[in-house]
Automatic annotation (TrEMBL), chains A, B:
SMART domains: HTH_LACI. PANTHER family: LACI-RELATED TRANSCRIPTIONAL REPRESSOR, RIBOSE OPERON REPRESSOR. It holds the Pfam family Peripla_BP_3. Signal peptide: none annotated. Keywords: DNA-binding, Repressor, Transcription, Transcription regulation. This is LacI family transcriptional regulator. Gene3D superfamilies: 3.40.50.2300, lambda repressor-like DNA-binding domains. The keyword Transcription regulation applies. PROSITE patterns: HTH_LACI_2 (PS50932). InterPro entries: HTH_LacI, LacI/GalR-like_sensor, Lambda_DNA-bd_dom_sf, Peripla_BP_I. Residues 6-60 form the HTH lacI-type domain. GO terms for molecular function: DNA-binding transcription factor activity; transcription cis-regulatory region binding.
């Protein structure tokens, strides 16, 4: 039922110009006389002509498609980053192909998808360090940017959090709140960023003279994991006056776990999270946290990808994205 | 720096078979002798051969790409649906192209993107009813599924919520909680689904003998909008004993707004939301809500798209997705 596809030749005939004039009109940077251009555009409009990007991609051996490998879109920070990356790619003339990735998926499938469509580049924001993806991207010359991951290959660019600043800010705010003995609530299988931030947090805390008296790994990295971690922590009987949770959902669950046991924040325990999700500002929590801006991450990632596409043989660079402290009631302890 | 693209002919030579045997090996449903097939796959593997999907798409005039038009990925239900749709498309051999859409964007740009890549179909989950997208899809024969939208063209299939059941369940649970005078908290620019559900809620409430004493439109459809609506509602001085908020974020904000004014849920006011976001189960809220399962929505959408692709000339059908009542403490009033 669809209409016959209009070709460049149809447009050339309608406009009374050569086939090559049509082609030049639709090629960025090609030279064409303004009058010719206007005739071509008018004819294209009236015929409903559209450049066939598939054909162009075949000739150029590179499409405008960019693979966006993501996992864990349930997490609002991740979903927001993916949304901003997709908008940024579209604004730059690229088309994001969304490739969800779960632990246990076979990376060969992802790599096949990337190569089958001659993608212009790939962005990986999924949790698992994709060694094979990075190796294959380098082998086939596909520009690759890894977001918040360990380095896996010389050629892949990376965008990472300034985990040193993030860990230090968390330790400092607990110290300023008058805490002396603190606990760290992590997760069973920490991501690269969380592992790195934990080390900087522990180092900064010790440097400030704080005693790191306990470490608990949340079974899940969500609200339920935080409540469950609070229960286990309280059962251990270790006394502390401050806690740093590795993400905000865990921190909020931890606060609810403390409440269930009759303890309150910040009077009994100061709590600092990380991410600055919308829920952190809710009056039931007023959680102090370390903010990483999704817009900053998306911008740095798109800049890195454009640089890789422009200079495919340059070694991959690492861009650090800054963080900031958002102070709320959960660390404002009575002195 | 990338290696020369390996062709089907290279594979045929290495395997010692014909070019056509290679082609048949990589075509779904084509017949090829098992021994030949094994030789071809071994040669393809050793040479790193991959089917060029761009070339195949050009020949078939249809790619395996499916446009996924989305807005508002910040909303966790939307992000989860997009994730499930993308996974489902990949599992069925399609590749989702993520096209973010904001109010005020020019639809022509989206339509161009869809046609330039000869997409096999399109799914629209964005808020604004995309009249032009539906018209152009029909004109160019692109199968289209609209998720939670008003009908816009004969040919587009739709997946919608059973808003009649959702509205009725919300009214019934307030009635069972002993409420007699209730309020409805909506939003300034309600989506199709919310508008439809509101009508069914009001009708069911009246049928049950409840007085709908007030209606307030939240300025934003998030937690802040809920708190602000509570403030405005309380300032109006209208007395009610139950409230239905059009989504869970608004409902949770409304509960926080009541708390700020010294009122509590459910003792002073029963509250019922809609969506069943993760936060609804948090102990600070224990919100009764109407659940729509993102998995059900994604499955129905993918089934509808596959049906449209298989039978492009059939009129678009509408599939209703069921809802269920999740009862928590926010409607368990002392009798």
């Amino acid at each position: 039922m669809s209409e016959r596809q209009v070709t460049a030749l149809d447009v050339a005939r309608r406009a009374g110009v050569s086939r090559s004039a049509v082609s030049r009109t639709f090629t960025v940077g090609a030279s064409v006389a303004p009058a010719t251009r206007d005739k071509v555009l008018a004819a294209a409009e009236s015929l409903g002509y559209r450049v066939n990007f598939l054909a162009r991609s075949l000739i150029l051996r590179r499409s405008e498609l960019v693979a966006l490998v993501v996992s864990d879109m349930d997490h609002s920070f991740r979903a927001r980053t993916v949304d901003l990356l997709a908008r940024g790619l579209v604004a730059r003339g690229y088309r994001p192909v969304l490739l969800p990735w779960s632990e246990g998926d076979h990376p060969a499938r992802l790599i096949d998808m990337m190569l089958q469509y001659s993608v212009a580049g790939a962005i990986v924001t999924s949790d698992t360090p994709p060694h094979q993806i990075a190796e294959q991207s380098a082998r086939w010359g596909v520009p690759l940017v890894l977001v918040n991951k360990a380095p896996v290959a010389d050629r892949s660019a990376r965008v990472v959090q300034d985990t040193e600043a993030a860990g230090r800010l968390a330790a400092e705010v607990l110290c300023s709140a008058g805490c002396r003995r603190i606990a760290y609530i992590g997760q069973e299988r920490p991501s690269y960023t969380i592992r790195d931030r934990r080390e900087h947090f522990i180092a900064a805390a010790r440097e400030l003279g704080l005693v790191v008296a306990a470490e608990v790994a949340g079974a899940a990295q969500n609200h339920f994991g935080g409540m469950e971690a609070a229960e286990r922590f309280l059962a251990s009987g270790v006394a502390v006056d401050g806690v740093h949770c590795c993400n905000d959902f865990l921190a909020i669950g931890f606060i609810d776990g403390l409440r269930r046991a009759g303890l309150s924040t910040p009077a009994d325990l100061a709590v600092v999270g990380c991410d600055d999700i919308a829920e952190a500002a809710w009056p039931a929590y007023e959680l102090t946290t370390i903010r990483q801006d999704a817009g900053d991450v998306a911008r740095a990632t798109l800049d890195a990808l454009m640089a890789c596409i422009a200079e495919p043989n340059a070694p991959g660079r690492t861009t650090e994205v800054g963080v900031s402290l958002i102070e709320r009631a959960s660390t404002q302890r009575p002195t």
